[in-house]
Amino acid sequence: MLGPVILAASRSDRMRRLISAAPVTKQVVDRFIPGETVDDVVPIIQDLTGKGLELTMDVVGEDITTPEQAAAARDAYLELIDRLEPLELGTRAEMSVKLSMFGQALEDGHELALKNVRPVVEAAAAIGTTVTLDAEDHTTLDSMFAIHEELRKDFPQTGCVIQAYLFRTEADARRLAESGSRVRIVKGAYKEPASVAYQNKHETDKAYVRILRTLMEGEGYPMIGSHDPRLISIAQELAHRAGRKMDEYEFQMLYGIRSEEHLRLAAEGHRMRVYTAYGTDWYGYFMRRLAEKPANLRFFLRSMVTHG
Asked: Quick check: is 134 catalytic?
């Protein structure tokens, strides 16, 4: 299994330097990350929304080691919101944030992350949109869910992410479905031990379907984060059985992966949101995209050979 090896490489400074220095890397990274600045991505936002798609924007970067870096991450999102405001897209362009970027892993990190993320959520609400808290490795989740619960007291539209491969997630899904939250379900993209997570794709897929059924039958708003045609089809069937209209759930896929499927689902009347990342600290995000799907790794290696 190459996935765990790639995830380990995503934490390696030596591999970061090696891959970042490869001449072809930027060409391949551009497939998944369309720019490094707000100026780069505003035209992308306008192009995708013009095609009937919606977006969730992610300013990439996770290796935060100082409070000053965490504040800079907060300010990067505030800058993005300032640029979104005149576009008047409302919830068609929301934000996804990783609390690690806001200082969660630092001393007193829970309080620091809440302090930094709150103004982003407030600013998003002021322009008619919202924020989703991304899930990271299992050791961060109790803090993430507590911050999510706290933010929802004032901003009930704040979303969160759950990961199907974790054993705890079925219980998390039942709690969140009852609370009426916006919940994105993904398979999971971090290297987790067998004591907390399924290691087998088949078991993860079965858990994904069980959790998705809970969300569809619950009181919340499910967001199906998957590129798997089978799971997309199952999601449509579960939504139909639960009596949900097309605007009562949505699909989410990554920028640069199955782009034609994005357009097909939107053309059928589904809400289709494209997870679009940008920024200079792209390495960790890029490596997880390679780990998630063998086709992404083959694309990268083929490009290395072709352009090497």
From this structure: yes
All residues at 6 or more sequence positions from 101 whose CB lies less than 8 Å from its CB, including other chains? 59, 61, 62, 64, 70, 73
**Structure confidence by residue, pLDDT tens digits, 214-250:** 999 999 999 999 999 999 999 999 999 999 999 999 9
Angle at 209 (CA atoms; ends 212, 93), nearest 5 degrees: 40
Q: What Å distances lie between residue 70 and 35, 107, 190, CA to CA?
A: 21, 12, 22
Altogether, the residues listed in the chain come to a count of 308
Catalytic hit among 118, 182, 184, 213: 184
- pLDDT tens column, 58-100: 998 767 899 999 999 999 999 999 999 999 999 999 999 999 9
Catalytic residue (choose from 134, 152, 205, 288):
134
Q: Per the structure block, which two tokens stand in for 98?
A: 């990783």
Check if the beta carbon of residue 253 is closer than 8 Å to that of residue 274. yes
Instruction: Give the number of other CB atoms < 10 A from CB of residue 14.
Output: 8
Other beta carbons within 10 Å of 116: 24
What amino acid is encoded at 157 in this protein?
A: Q
- Summarize the confidence of residues 250-273 as an average pLDDT: 96
Distance CA 200, CA 202 (A): 6
Chain mean position to CA 45? 16
Residues 6+ apart with CB under 8 A from 233: none
